[in-house]
Design brief:
By secondary structure, the chain is an alpha/beta fold. It is 59% helix and 10% strand. It has two domains: 127 residues, Response regulator (Rossmann fold, 3-Layer(aba) Sandwich), CATH 3.40.50.2300; 143 residues, no CATH class. It has a five-stranded parallel beta sheet, with helices on both faces.
Length: 292
């Protein structure tokens, strides 16, 4: 993640920069001591996120955001503020502010908010990439027979090298259920509910026990996908499956950590952060886009 900091307090800018650097949350590509002095740099450097103080001379935070939006800036904003004013907070949200960081700056709060922002940023990019890939299909290209849901999911899992893994059938069943729902909501229901739905199809004696087993099978399958993609990336960083799936379905930092582990020790780490909900969410949305 690429950050730009706008704050008239040099100490605040320094502290935010140190937190981002020390915690490896991204890189600070620029900073400014006022909104007026930040406009040209932000528009030319295109940071992913702008950390911006609410109260500043010449142009305050909200006015700066308005100027940047009018010029077409599409990045995210996090407001830094010492004042808790409901009207000003409401106006900031209307202008596109994603989160607030309160002064005096707290390291734990900053880390938490920046990680949430990164997750939101990655999800938006994943959805955008899926839409763009669909838009690139020529409108006059003859339509082929539509794949069924299972074929779509199996193809994606096969690209990641996990067809035949213990949890691949569970994943297919979950996506089939999500696609068959009447409401077709974008957001997933709680994972616990999904596990129970899959468990009920096998009519086990103990639903809770089978649900836990399903969770573990899916977790192991996703972990295998992470390891497979990390290996692909080490062999060929331009591998199309690596380039497509690694940044969309996973925390790319986890993939890089696995690549480093394999390169340095010749083995894969088993203690990896596996985000089941993100994986299923992106898989569901991609399946939905390819099916309709």
């Amino acid at each position: 993640m690429r950050y730009f900091i706008v704050d008239d307090d040099k100490a605040s800018r320094t502290m935010l920069k140190n937190i981002i650097t020390e915690r490896e949350l991204g890189v600070v590509i620029g900073e400014a001591d006022s909104g007026a002095n930040s406009l040209t740099s932000i528009l030319s450097m295109h940071p992913d996120v702008v950390l911006i103080d609410l109260l500043m001379p010449k142009l305050d935070g909200i006015e700066t955001i308005e100027h940047l939006r009018k010029e077409g800036f599409q990045g995210q904003f996090i407001m830094i503020s010492q004042i808790v004013n409901k009207e000003m907070v409401g106006e900031a949200y209307e202008k596109g502010v994603e989160f607030f960081i309160h002064k005096p700056i707290n390291r734990v709060e900053v880390q938490s908010i920046l990680k949430k922002t990164e997750e939101q940023f990655k999800l938006k990019n994943s959805l955008l990439a899926i839409r763009q890939s669909l838009e690139n299909i020529a409108p006059n290209k003859p339509l082929m027979r539509r794949q069924n849901i299972k074929d779509i999911v199996v193809t994606i899992l096969s690209d990641m090298g996990v067809i035949g893994e213990v949890g691949s059938d569970d994943i297919v069943t979950i996506i089939e259920y999500l696609m068959e729902r009447e409401d077709q909501a974008i957001q997933l229901p709680p994972l616990k509910d999904l596990y129970e739905i899959v468990a009920l199809k096998t009519q086990p004696v103990d639903i809770k026990k089978e649900s836990k087993a399903i969770e573990q099978r899916i977790r192991r399958t996703i972990l295998t996908a992470i390891n497979n993609l990390a290996s692909m990336g080490l062999i060929d960083y331009t591998n199309p499956n690596f380039e497509y799936y690694a940044p969309r379905y996973f925390d790319f930092q986890e993939i890089r950590n696995q690549m480093r582990q394999i390169n340095e020790e010749g083995d894969v780490a088993t203690r990896v952060k596996v985000n089941i909900k993100k994986f299923l969410q992106v898989l569901y949305l991609e399946t939905k886009d390819k099916y309709y």
